[in-house]
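Quick question about two entries, pasted in order.
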Amino acid sequence: MADVVVVGSGIAGLFVATRCARAGLSTLVVTKKNLSDSSTNWAQGGIAAAMSKTDYEAHIKDTIEAGCGLSDPEIVEMVVREASDRIDDLIASGVQFDSNKDGFDLTIEGGHSSRRILHSKDATGAEIERALIVEARASPNLELLESHMAVDLILKEKSSEIKQISGIWVLTPEGVVETIPAQAIIIAAGGAGQIYRQTTNPSVATGDGIAMAHRAGAKVRDLEFVQFHPTALAISGERPFLISEALRGHGAILMTSENIAKWRLVGGEPGPHSFMLNHDSRGSLATRDIVARATDQEMKKTNPYEKCVWLVTSHLDKKEIQERFPTIQARLQNHGLELGGAPLPVAPAAHYMVGGISVDENGLARQCPTCSNEIQYPGLYAIGEVACTGLHGANRLASNSLLEAVVFSNRCAEHVIENISPSENEISLPEWRADGLSTLIEHIPLRRDRIVLQSTMTDDVGLVKRDARLQRAQRRLEFLRQEVDRIWRGCLPTQEIVELRNMIHVSRLVTSAAINRKENVGLHYNLDCD
């Protein structure tokens, strides 16, 4: 038994876990691979934070504008005003941000009106993850379960209408489902980028937290807002590799082949020749929703065999940008490319789930019983990408994700510590269903079903949508759900079947949300809504 179980080991999960453990609560972190297998570890650009009070109002304004007016203003103000304190916390945990003679070496990214991005070269997420893992491993009262996968939440009746969390079922590396009682479950399991064919997310991002919470009756919201990062390295046969937005903040320019040809004819600066200026006055530093759609549009207009646009860096100081972005430079070298050299092929890829489990200002989840429109969900919390806090609205502002995660992790920890006391009493919970189940699923083509799912979501529920395609996706996903549900009811779980079940569940939620959104705003764009 644990007082607190945290599902996920990114910035949100490890930050909240160490705080709960420090307060004397027995805390268990469950992560389905290694601790470092998280989207946090892959985050390059940095963490946005108004470090001066004079920047508060501008950061609030930038966030609300990027979110197309759908952000919760009170949540935005809360997050921005708590940012500098949380940066201090990260530094106290051992995170080393880059600095210069004036203090932090702040950069700018798309949608920001000033330099407010703290970073550690182009591996900020990895540096945060490194420091938090060191802190977690040294924390008393904290147990770390790697290669363990959360399967489903265990509920108990609080009343005839309202459920309460009492524990969680977890799949061990040996294939056994363990029952773990807990007073609080904090879901910090990240996003669901793997429901798409091309994604910048790690392989673990299969929507487990959203699916698990929704099956238990938690409210979800805004799942139609899926952010596609406009500049993922587009190399045939390779997994998309994120080319940080900070590179465009440093002066890199998006261009088509035609733009490049014109630029070379005049031999001038590339800026005036970027296709982005036809879409937004900010050019390559417009917000991600605008840049991703513009890139997609240009790709469809030009040579259909050229499935990319180009990120031009040859006008920048080669030595400087290679030193500033060593992670990107190392990856490019594997393909015979380099920063400051030939144009880089880039294309949009699924990157971030703006929607998720609906939570309040402390990360406490909400549920929708029949007796009320919306109430809190006792014992269930969600933080990080898995949660929908109201900060991002219809489109996330660059580098606000790590900020949101650490602010809500801190508030969540404070709420848990205030409302939960260490317990020594054992709780009796139901064991995982086991009778009559077969383990013979190795001949069932689950990999094929996963590919069909990803193709359906990419082709029909992607960057640009149509009503007929959304309806087709809904039919296909329902067929997959029925097929996988039959398998699920008759087998012992494996990570593969648990992930596929979750991916189908989240894909159906995303598709339904897209169908129900009748106006184009932010990341949601349906040609039939024009």
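Here is the second entry:
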Amino acid sequence: MAENKVKDEVVAIYQITQEQSDFKPSVKEVEVIDNVFLKFRLTAESRNRNFQYFDGINLIDYINDSVRRFSTNIDEREDIEDWQARIHDPFTRNKVLAILGKVVAVLPIAQFTGRGDEDVRKGTILTNLYEYAEELDDYEELMIHVLLEAIVKGTSISYEGVDKHKKMYRDINGTGDDLTVTETTETTTKLFGSIVPLEDFYPSSVSIRNLNRMPFCFWRKVIPFSSFIEDWKSYKKHTLVQQVRAFSPDENRPFYADFISDDVGEGSVEIIRYYNRDTDQYVIIANGIWLNPISNKEGKEQISPLPFNHKELPFWDIKFDFFGDFFYGKSLPDRLKTLQDVLNVLTNMLLDQSFLTIFPPLLTNGYDSIEDDYLRPGRRTPIDTQGLPINQAFMKLDLGTPAGWHQYILNYTRDIMEQSSVDKVSSGQAGGGDRTTAQEIRVAAEGVTAILGLFGRMVNYGIKRKAKLKGANILQFWTDKKSPMIKRVLGEGGEEEFNQVFNVFKLDGAVLTGGKRGTKVIEFYADKNKMPTKTELQARSMLSEAESGKKTEIVAMPGEYLRNFLFDVKLVSNPKSETSKELEKALQLEKVRVYMSFFPQLVNVKELAAQTAEKMGDDPTKILMDEVFALVPEPNRELDKGISTTPSENNANNLVRGAQGGQQGQAQMAALQQQMQG
């Protein structure tokens, strides 16, 4: 009776269903869960050790300390009075944002090329699809946060996956009371990237320094039970998962309680995802329930393979700095933490001393009748001086104001910190009354290029792996007619809406076959025999150009044409970034100046003018006149003075420098951009 009463109370509190209460795991399920969870515990114990690289603390404490130094405004001083300062100098935060801004400004993008004798057109098409996928996924916004994570925590881990999302549309037909509703279900296959919090990622070994060589890993996440029910309802067995709860002494512990980590709080669900590329296994466990088993031909449960054809761990990483042969990187707050503490102490001590000079302490002879709030206009305070003159009854302690030496120590500390990060000249903070020499600018440019160049190489490595993973996912999912990017199913009878073209991608500003930019439309056909002819595609392109006024190219192909494409990845400047666009304009003007200065009689002026108009974002046919193209320069004709060819008036060169923030900025950004592109 007592046991049944306790069980009824537990069911009432935690809403345990009859299905959950009656569930008994199979022998195979217990075996899989036991093996995976045991491996996870061993991996977690290895990762959570104290490391000398982290100055004797563990990874979680290292991350928390680095994040606090970046985000806090308060210096946690111990054993101080209420009036003492608690200011955290924002030096570390400023330098993190300065470095982030420098790298983001020259962030490259991937370009795909074929291996061996692969069709060159396949590389161009895959590059177009990759740019389209990254545009849908807000590539630049994601990379900003990925880089911020790497700088602040030392390492950032990101995931490249696929998400199939169902959405219901209800269309109303008719008017008044005579209404009919047509329901349409739309399934969208989205290729996305997301940040994996560093504390949630468990590498197979911390002594393996990159993901390329790692045999397996774990992605662990603890979420509220309500969030689990909503986010993981696509798995049938999610209804068997119970939230973490305490057990009474009289209650029998269910089997799953032994497969939950000790740090998971009540009302939560621990989700453990296990990826193993050596054995091609993918296991999801939620509070001891195996969510994703698959059935073989005999109907028996077996472990799911990795859901990606590339059969790699679907993660990529970026490090800010490195310790050595170690998986984790060194963060910028960790690099600056000792000097940051000294800077905080000196700053707060100067403020404390300044405060004491404003409100100096007093020494009194005998009883002190002065109250704390005696400083008020017109206030008269009676004082018992014990018969002594008032100037002898009280004495103000002269502690002295902060001296120049104190300021020198502060500046000295800042200078050392500048050498360990980005100096104020490179951050754009010079010029406010300071005289900065050309030599200082040159040295600063070399220093920041050296610091950011190493980080740029790390970014270069991470983006390449990201592109390889997403490129493989594009070939797997978007070229498969059974898994189109958008699939619609009609409501009446559930009949699938069939289209000859199962995927259509429209890209603005893409590189066309002739090398110019315009609108490119890529169509994947389910049946090769129903593809349009080349003449039909050209006719559609001409109609589209007439309507939009933009150069248009339509490419049609069967999905199989691209699916088994073997590719390599190289990095190039992102043509859609504002920095790249402005730099291209300035470089085009510089190119025009050089050509017209040295080879005026050999230059095709018509083509050069058309290229310049395109770089400026204009349509050459609307900007340039045919009469101008028809002109032939005379042999001894003077050069056009619209663009000066004298070094003293080199406006185009100034534009190039101005696009990157002056001579010093140009040197830094050009060097960093070259290094990041490899």
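Reply: The chain has a mean pLDDT of 78. The CA atoms of residues 160 and 497 lie 29 Å apart. Hope that helps.
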